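Backbone Fold Data
Goal — fold tokens
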Amino acid sequence: MSVALGLGDLLAAVSVGGANCLTSVTELEPAAGAHASVAPAKFATRSGNQRGAYAYETRYDGGVAQDVVLIDSKQSQLNRVEQALRDAIRDGHEVLSRLPRLMVSYQRDGETVEYSDLELPHRAFDGHIRAGTVDGQNVTDYEGYRRIRDADPSNARALLDASPASLVFGAWDSSRAARQGRWRSVLVGEIIGFCQKPDDPERPELKGGARIDPLGMRIELSGTALKELAERQRAELSRATFDKLVKGSKSAKASSAGLGGIPPTLEALAGVACRRIVRSHVLSFAALRQIRFGAGGEGDAACRGLLAALALNGLARSDAELVLRANCDLVEAGPTRVTLFGRGGQTTEFAALDIAAADALLAAALAHAEQAAGVAWNGVALRITGDPAIAAGAVDDEAEDG
């Protein structure tokens, strides 16, 4: 029977000569049964196809090359782990609420909105942070933030103390003229489905859709009426919808305002039938061992162990919530297989961490890092005021869900 992963296992793995990585693999299946299709992630195409497209690849299964469709990408899986950590922080989790993070705030419509490095795409080096101010001083001129930007693998302590998420999930200071910080994610993952790739992906199978309006399938309004309707709802409409209605283009109809019915049409991408669905994650101890924190051998290992425990905590929380998108409800078809890959091909199996076990591991890792490396988790490490011009220029139109 597999035992649970402990702090000693993590510390051994992140020390010199330790294990290469830890993998977590789960077989999934459609909640409705094997007969059901799933909706994979959609991606924009160079041709500008409004429907988007699915991403097909070739992978090996049992030594045989097979077609697969990408159900959830590496970046999306990391975003889901970050979301799980954010939710725990907002719920007042005893340990995670102390997680150091950078926070930028904006004033929008008379309210304060805040975003942390757990949701900003470039994390500690995000454009929203770099464009902000601290006590009226440009963030990029603020000494505390300059130490964060100047951190490198030989001593990443400033980044660890302010934004551990950047070290776990990756960050790239790509716009900086020199000394660009480029940190790879130490945790990666994806969900793929083994399937039959279409003969012509540019002409995929389509599914039908319709909308019924109880008042009437057709609601005809004059251009003037459409403009007046748009003006009355201006504060509630997206910019694209408002412009379409008020400009009086030929395509402007009552249906653009959500009125009237839409007859059944084949216009959306159909789901994909998969004979096997696999969710997999890799936590790289080899990548963690490339980072030092100026705390000596034992202290550096304690810091790496803390980062590994944070990654595993977020993963346990994310795996517990199999929520991807509409028409893609999945369930676990069996237990998660957790494997530690050591040197010389040696492997060790561990029991998958549930949230309670992951919480205990994180608390132990933090206590050890406090003692061995003087790590202190005190919540928000730096509060930044966002540039008002950025808030004023923000448009709420959202891309189609991928």
